[in-house]
Known about the structure:
Elements: E1 3-9, H1 16-24, E2 33-39, H2 46-56, E3 61-65, H3 70-81, E4 86-89, E5 95-96, H4 100-108, E6 115-123, E7 141-146, H5 147-152, E8 163-166, H6 167-172, H7 183-193, E9 197-209, H8 222-244, H9 251-271, H10 276-288, H11 301-312, H12 317-340
Parallel strand pairs: 1-2, 1-4, 2-3, 6-9
Antiparallel strand pairs: 4-8, 5-9, 6-8, 7-9
Helix pairs in contact: 8-9, 11-12
Amino acid sequence: MQLSVIVPVYNVEPFLPRCLDSILRQGMEVGEYEVICVNDGSPDNSAQILANYQAKHPDIFRVVTQENQGLGGARNTGTALARGEYVAYVDSDDYLIDGAYRYLLDTFCKDKPDVLHFSCQNIYTDGTQVPDSDANLEGRVVFDGDGAEAFNNQILTNNVWSKLYKRTFLKEHGIHSEIVICQDALFNFEVCRHHPRTVIVTSSLYRYENGNVDSIQKTGRKEVVMVQLNELLYNMGIVERYLQGGEEDMRPAALRLRNSFMRLYYKKMLMVPLTKNEWKRHTDILGRKNRRKVKNDTSQWRMNLEANVKNMAGHSYWEYRLVRFLYQHLFREILFPLLITR
Length: 342
């Protein structure tokens, strides 16, 4: 079997048929691939949709149901069951253009790289119709070498859904998804620590859904954000232990990841109204770990402006209150959307 496609499913009823239909249109025959759908305790009608697809395509779809473990846990369940030479991860509110996997396997996987990375396009939709004017099946190789080098130089992205991974490579090195926010970055950091032979191609094949307001990444519920803050501290701890361990080959990537987690940490703090005691507890933790400030590690002035705004939120509680008001009502709703479209 050439490919195992792993699809975690949670609260994606409006998007799920589009995702699964696109996987069926990959130009692959029965026996060449499998689709492992992990129903992660989804509360909507996703379970019935999965049952319908499995009944119609029993030789392709395998459905597993489990109590909610989050995206990383669902991916781990699917990976443990996979039988394909390569593993692909597809978020269930996303989709692929027709024939993508067939093209990748036939064109770029003949000499069996450990990781194959391809391009994607962000989409903004309510799930009903998306133009594919930028779909580009054919591509060329722009990198063929050590994945650590590619990750350090930021030509290999953090996400897992724009890649094919050799299953035996993941198994040999015991690589799995952490059950935390930003698990993609930690997953690929761990993959690249083991120096996989990595091929990067220009083919734009994956469509990443930005319009799913129910995505856990977009929620502003305080109880969820507080959990995510603790998870980000866990993430920074993993990277910190690597930096203190004396290894140097992935140090640039580790420093960049630590800073990106800090950026997101402050962003999450600005999404919810923290009490003074909550603010003090979180900033004290950052201060004790010498991770108080977001560093301006990019040449993009918009990112540097955002970093400076977020750093103000760590100075005092009243500055946090002011910055949060400005961030929510000026930067987030007005300025940043304008800058993104330019």
